[in-house]
Design a protein that fits this description.
The chain has helices at about 1-20, 40, 50-70, 75-90, 105-110, 110-135, 140-165. By secondary structure, it is an all-alpha fold.
């Protein structure tokens, strides 16, 4: 428990700085925007109170918004992801359910499970974020192309981050 009290604030600051200072300056082809910061929300322990997760997601997204001047777009997308997270975890739950005090990582639940979990979460976040940014459906296909391209790139980036931070004892 003490480890979590130190780890999560450190991760919070690290992800915000990494996203704002480095990743927001990367835009590939004008359509691909890498968003690694949502990994912080995806990594929160499974049994964390839903209201707490939504509150953390709001503060986290608002932190990104403050530095990027995006007027709450990231905060709303993060809250949407936090809202959808229990449904994602419920759909992907193992037959025996989740163990207590487990974080949804590849090391704890396996790579196949984590890739599906991250892909769904990333897609939902990006879909919400990009359509709030455009705020119209007349450019549906262009926006959907940005969502898919950014989702694939973000999934690769998140998988890479998960690979480098995962425990050596992986569940297969």
């Amino acid at each position: 428990m003490i480890k979590n009290i130190i780890t999560y604030p450190f991760q919070f600051v690290l992800f915000v700085l990494l996203q704002v200072l480095i990743l927001n300056n990367i835009q590939l082809g004008g359509t691909i925007n890498p968003f690694l910061y949502i990994l912080f929300i995806l990594w929160l322990p499974i049994e964390t109170n839903k209201a707490l997760v939504m509150g953390i997601a709001f503060v986290f997204g608002l932190s990104i918004d403050v530095f990027t001047d995006t007027m709450g777009m990231h905060a709303s997308a993060c809250v949407f992801l936090a809202f959808a997270r229990p449904f994602m975890l419920n759909i992907l739950a193992p037959r025996d359910g989740y163990e207590l005090n487990v974080s949804p990582t590849a090391g704890a639940l396996g790579w196949f499970w984590f890739i599906r979990y991250a892909a769904i979460g990333i897609f939902l976040h990006h879909f919400f974020l990009f359509f709030v940014e455009v705020f119209r459906f007349t450019e549906f296909f262009d926006t959907m192309g940005r969502v898919l391209a950014s989702s694939v790139f973000s999934l690769l980036l998140i998988s890479l981050a998960q690979f480098f931070t995962s425990n050596t004892e992986e569940k297969r």
